[in-house]
Amino acid sequence: MIRLSTATIYQSGLNGILKNESDVNYLQQQLSSGRRVVTPSDDPLAAGQAITAYQNLNMAEAYGSNRDDANNSLGNESNTLSTVVSTLTDVLTRVVQAGNGTLADQDRNTLATVLEHARDALFALANTTDGNGQYLFSGTAGNAAAYVKDPTTGAVTYNGNSGQRVVQVEQSRQMNSSDVGSDIFNRATPGSTAYVASAGAGNTGTATFVTPSVASGGGSGNNFKIDFAADPVTGDMMYTVTTTDAATGATTTSTPAAYTPGDAIDTGGGVTMVVNGAPADGDSLSINTAGTPSYVAAPGATNAGTATSSQLTVAPGGASGNNFQIDFAKDAVTGDVTYTITTTDPASGTSTTTAPTAYTPGDAIDTGGGVSVVIDGNPEDGDSFTVNPTNSASVDMFATLGELITALKSPAQNDPAAQTKLVNLLATANKTLSINLDNVSTVQASVGARQNELDALDTTGTQRTLTLNKTLTDLTQINYYDAISNMSMRQLSLQASMSAFNAVKGTTLFSMNK
């Protein structure tokens, strides 16, 4: 027979009671908090996994909030651009009406007033603000009005910057939540090969033109000017075509040719234009691309590093039309990264390459051709970036409307020269505003595409959030059925241990000998 001391018996009973009380208390904490893992020590592995899942859930919710903000901004922009399209469509209708030769000066004045209201409406739309009072189309300068009007001349100029408002809508996806005003109201659609003709400001003849035609494969980006001059001997009207090379700026002038009203004048660069009427000696017509080239930077298709490009800048007088390629190389021994710049002249096809230069992440790389670009991150050996011109252009909607309004207010009745000037200006305005309308429609389509992408990302984000919530539930949340069952069992065990202790503590040698 084993003999146990009274102290041992008491301590053993007390330990059993305390153990059951601790278990009951722990189960009460689980039930009151709804969590299976009350402290990390309860299940270290599950606690670590729960922290990761919780962080991922917070990130997913933050991306979802960013997508909501971007969608609201894009929705505001889409509504604004829809109104711009409607207004421009009406303006083009008025331009066609203004070309009616039976209109009197008073009628044209009325149309000028209508166009003034349209210009004011477009000005207000260009200065649309979002729900936070930030100007929608002023780039990253949201506190500044996108466009300002000169109180004296009435000229409207862009007042924002070229920075894009970028929103992180997913872990690996950034999206522009708005567009820069100058890319909407002051340029042609990127890739456009459109040409705009205009009459010389000092023209005195009655020559009018028809919108230029661009042959397939033509429209190299060169600009053309047609100058008229009377033969000093015969008095016959002659013309020459001066071509300005878009890449080099060099000009060439054709030999004089006889002018025949109604015939198409071939510039020799894939662009032709029909001219009617009787030009005066010294008159001229210009046929220009919709603007000067801008540039776009793109990474090489096989890049393996993490380098990214941003802040592409074209210096005044730069943008010669040359193409640039930045190639990176990493020293196999030191690991130092250098880069070279290869410049290709599109006119001659010749290329030149600079000496290797040490690469510093975040510094602006100057191509030497008036174009610089900031590259950040860690490029790998063999990575490259191209910096090439696009055929985007600056076509000022507000300046065109201003010139048109001024022309419509000027008397032209019974004045053939004034009527000719008006006809030519209407043709120029019609083409320019049509280019503006096409560009606004293109931007509007881009906005819609971004909204569709946000919807798709929202669907994916919602599914991810549900999955992460389930993971957190599985890792940390309590199973109430199991917990209540365990609580009942532990309470019963506690009652049993207390009853046993009471029975034992009342037992003595004398009571056992009765």
From TrEMBL:
Flagellin N-terminal domain: residues covered:
5-140
GO MF annotation list:
structural molecule activity
**Does the UniProt entry include the keyword Iron?**
no
Major localization class: other
Q: Name one GO cellular component term.
A: extracellular region
For the keyword Plastid, the answer is no
Q: Which GO terms describe its biological process?
A: bacterial-type flagellum-dependent cell motility
Which key words tag this protein in UniProt?
Bacterial flagellum, Cell projection, Cilium, Flagellum
Cellular compartment(s) = Bacterial flagellum; Secreted
Q: Which NCBIfam families match?
A: flagell_flgL
Protein family according to the UniProt entry: Belongs to the bacterial flagellin family.
Task: Please give the name of this protein.
Answer: Flagellar hook-associated protein 3
To which species is this protein native? Bordetella genomosp. 9
